[in-house]
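In practice, a research group might receive sequence data for several interacting partners and want a quick structural hypothesis before committing to experiments. The following worked case mirrors that situation: the sequences arrive first, and a predicted assembly follows.
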Amino acid sequence: MARRRQLYEGKAKILFEGPEPGTLVQYFKDDATAFNAQKKGIITGKGVLNNRISEYLMQRLSDIGIPTHFVRRLNMREQLIREVEIIPIEVVVRNVAAGSLSTRLGIPEGTRLPRSIIEYYYKNDQLGDPMVAEEHITAFGWAVPQDMDDIVALTLRINDFLCGLFLGVGIILVDFKVEFGRLWENDEMRIVLADEISPDNCRLWDAKTNEKLDKDRFRQDLGSVEEGYREVARRRGILPEGGPADIKGPKTLQ
Ligand code: 5GP
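A structural hypothesis for the assembly, expressed as tokens:
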């Protein structure tokens, strides 16, 4: 059988042409990058876990009425998605100070923020994804004000829902990044959640110990990166379907 046509390769995912018009196949790699790709590595099994975690979170969000690009998971590393026109903005939501917020403003990591803060970054690797204001986004036509209203409303709902979903299993959602796309259906356009939601783009801390269970384990050389991702999946009852050839780790006896 002919291999599907590859359309795009990113740092952590590859997009292939889908089986039907308007669909794509999103393949999750084990590659990890940080600090605008200055740090690179492989986290064995990460792609399998992120495929499952993102599937689970997109489905739960869809259950509460958030439109997403997710159609269905195809196998251990691939999912079928709807083709959307990606809005070139990374939307970051913060509940607790960490990462670039702490560095930039000197707010100690772990400080609970008085309210959730939304920030925007222009998706441009050459420029290092600079932070932008809504003014830049609308002035340069990356999105129109109505798109931004939809994005803010969706983002706040996603944040509220995910905070509760993770807190229910003893995990604090410190911050996360989401991306949105435009989905066209019969001349009607809808803004939908796109990309992925996984420990690659969320900060997730154990609520009791503040242990980091996300990509900061890789960024900060804390070790046991895959174990952190696996712990997130385990607590939410999401487990890979078990292919010892595809994922390393302790094997559970049946
Ligand atoms: P920070 O601005 O503190 O570096 O990141 C805030 C949050 O957004 C973190 O959860 C981080 O994982 C996520 N994030 C920000 N930019 C990116 C990015 O380019 N790629 C990914 N995967 N996550 C990002």
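Before designing any experiment, note the following. The two ends are 35 Å apart (CA to CA). DSSP finds six helices and 14 strands in the chain.
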